Amino acid sequence: MVTTVPSHPPTPPGPGPAPRPHRRLRRYALGAAGTLLAVPPLPAAAAGHPDGGGQKKVLTIAVSQSVDSLSPFLAQRLVSTSIHRLAYEYLTNYDVKDGRPAPGLATSWTSSPSKLIWTYTIRRDSRWSDGRPVTAADAAWTFNKIMSDEGAATASGSFTTNFRKVTAPDPGTLVVELKRPQATMLALDIPIVPRHIWEKVRSIPAFTNDRQFPIVGSGPFVITDFKVDRHLRLRANRDFWQGAPHFDELLLKYYKDGDAAVAALRKGEVSFVQGLTPAQAAALKSMRNIRVNDAPGRRFLALATNPGARSRDGNTFGSGHPALLDPAVRRALFHAVDRTALVTRVFRGHAEEGEGYIPPRYTSYHWKPAAGQRIGYDPARAAALLDRAGYRRTAGGKRTGRNGRPLSFRILCHATDPNDRAIGKYLQEWWGALGIGLRVDCLDNVSDPWLKGDYDLAFDGWSVNPDPDFALAIHTCAALPATPADTGSTDNFICDRRYDELYRAQAAEYEPTARAELVKRLQSRLYDTGFMNVIAYPNAVEAYRTDHIQSITTMPEAAGNIWGQDGYWSWWSAKPAAGAGDGGPDDDAAGGLLLGLGAGLVPAVVLTVLVVMRRRATVEDRE
Hints:
This protein has about 625 residues and is α+β, with helices and mostly antiparallel strands. It is about 20% helix and about 20% strand. Among the domains are: about 65-210, Dipeptide-binding Protein, domain 1 (Alpha-Beta Complex); about 300-540, Roll (Dipeptide-binding Protein, domain 3). A six-stranded mixed beta sheet has the order 15-19-14-18-16-17. Keywords: Membrane, Signal, Transmembrane, Transmembrane helix, Transport. Belongs to the bacterial solute-binding protein 5 family.
């Protein structure tokens, strides 16, 4: 056996220094809802860790994204997967310093010389929150369920399609046999569920996992209560193998309006807000007891065009505009998008211009198009492309399609995301100059039309993990829904044979440099198909109250984000500030210490609308 262990032991984050504001942060006036309010002093409260007595310490997190599901088999939104990282252990974790594989439920692992058999040693010091031991049988049951039940494969099926067999020869040993080598065996982002609970579930797609509390898990927190678009509570797991969290409870509180969440932060009603606009961040930066964290993000924002929604059984559906099947039309639209202007005017510098699919934060996988390949801002070229393709202007300046009708499109926009709205206005102006109409449909729930294929274009965005496999897998033919009535894991109904070949090649390549080159070729192919075009990589712009939170760990530790991490480091490590108040029994009363997560933007931490995975109900989706 060839032993494979982490290159260095993981370093559990301690309550180190609080993250500093990003140096690129600028000052802007707060908008209509931005009147600066004096922050009243917090009520006196018993100091010290809860185990030492005193009042309960509650870290309240304001969220603007709705939980799509509390079932680990179905959840794909960032808010939901972030909750599951707190409530369930994964086979392996990501090191907080640099994202390398680190022990999770598995303490070590080995692979056979052929790389087709992986053996994991399961820790003996992990227990389910109902007191039962976590064993290899739980992991084997989780993986086998995903392999055998298409409904259970909704969220994470791409990780197990290459599995031949999974067994647990004893409580401390898990064995996975593969059909072909698979490079993601230390990055299987699948929550391990308790077999003794889930084997009683008759239908995975119908089981919402939100009817009986507390929900049995093995992570640093236990889910104790949930009310749709109101709140979700988690209590600290005092028996967590890596040590108990410093707060007794997390409260994720829903704010549909980002300004309301920011106002709650200023008043001390919440303690953490994410997805800040530039104006909000600038105003908060000048306030006492509030620290702004502005760090390179792990997500991208893109324009997605409907390639013709289809299912694996060969059926087509939806109402995508047929003109967008013409590569010349898509290329012309992208040539008429000024990314530099959007980064400057919309994001006010809190973003980088979009290029490849993988954000620049992941340097080894980030790709840039070659000079002759790049679709840069060039309105004249866009107009020429449309002219040559036969989309002529009328006397009134409007473009007409080949059917003689005016060329006009719809774009799905997230009503809770101010960036979508702002960019939509620029697109109307730029595409209007080409003679193309655009209707910006800003909806609370973009999921339904997206799943049905009832869109022409859409604002699309994903948070990418240190291993990019999942974000790449959602564009394969295998990710399409089985039938029009099903929900696949596809992002945008893309199915391209060459892309699939490259995807399979990178998934089987263990040598890091060779795999990175294949990942870049994959991005190049996705770029050339022209169904997706990345606009920007938004920064993670967030703020917290230093009189509520003494310290909290970012990921990566140097200039990283707090919300939406690849792990549980931030909330597990967070320490209450001395004198912080009591969260109280009723979050709707907003009493005491509410440590709030989230406000209006992409990686927003505010629970918002509700929908199945990949259709963004705010800009924050799946990981």
